[in-house]
Amino acid sequence: MSKESVDLNNKTILITGAAGFIGSNLAMRLLDATEGSTIIGLDCLTDYNPVELKEWRLQQIEEKSKTSTSTFEFIKGDMADKDLIFSLFEKYHFAIVVNLAAQAGVRYSIDHPDTYIHSNIIGFYNILEACRHYPVEHLVYASSSSVYGGNKKVPFSTDNKVDNPVSLYAATKKSNELFAHAYSKLYNIPSTGLRFFTVYGPAGRTDMFYFSATNKLREGGTIKIFNYGNCSRDFTYIDDIVEGVVRVMQGAPEKRNGEDGLPIPPYAVYNIGGGTPENLLDYITTLQEELVRAGVLPEDYDFDAHKELVPMQPGDVPVTYADSSALEHDYGFRPKIGIQTGLRRFAEWYKNFYM
Questions:
Q1: Number of C-alpha atoms within 13 angstroms, CB side, residue 184?
Q2: Which CATH superfamily is domain 3-205+235-276+320-337 in?
Q3: How many angstroms separate the CA atoms of 195 and 184, rounded?
Q4: Span 8-32, mean pLDDT?
Q5: Nearest to residue 353, comparing CAs of 198, 201, 238?
Q6: Which residues form the catalytic set?
Q7: Whole-prediction pTM value?
């Protein structure tokens, strides 16, 4: 797909979910990589993950901004507040918008559906409406590998149909892609959706398995291994995710008209995943080794006594496996950081942060 080059220097950039895992790392990367830009970070600081961890991430961004020629401004607010969103677009006239704010989590969506409609549907609609009335060079937004549902054809390709989500979270992410396509067609908004595959790393989401398992093991608790360990995940380290996002930001789908004189939707969707699914039991073994190496757990820790093999949970899928060839073709990038490196960095960060 043809791309329009987008210069990130001397631009005003909105990052929603800026206190989140991906959003905070993206903000720091942009402070490093841009000159003269104004980066606005929006986040409502919900307590789904610990607020103190979000505040720590924001502190890291502030420290980074002290040595950057670009600036960062944080605004606490809810993306579902339409008046707030429109006031921000009116004030800053954003050139690039990266929508990372969302209620995450497959299992949480089973018992808390309202939260997902509020953030992932109404919130994203507000962003699209604002981009309609205050045109942007490029809207980049987070989708998810969960849209593939129970798809048995692997690796997962963006050419596959994704019409059968198995969780409300997945349904909201698929809805985001449909909304974005409609707005791209109707209002000629260049938009790119990114299907992230199991993102992990230092200061990540505490509800993700590697983080919650570390907390439980350290407390002497028991970790549950779903589907009796017969799961594979395409784990993607945070630095690879951010590299992919930054590259995509700089190449917006080209605006052009069809034979009918109407816009051909400047719309694209890409996978960002390592393309090397890891068996969950192997992943756990590597995590254990790195936690011991970092001194988070003692060398004689009895891991077998703290594991429980349990059935598959509703909304889960046995395998995720990304085909990132389109990302590599269009942007020259494919994730490459392996789990040993990634989990080692996490374990070392965890030791410094919590102990």
A1: 26
A2: NAD(P)-binding Rossmann-like Domain (3.40.50.720)
A3: 18
A4: 98
A5: 201
A6: 169
A7: 0.96
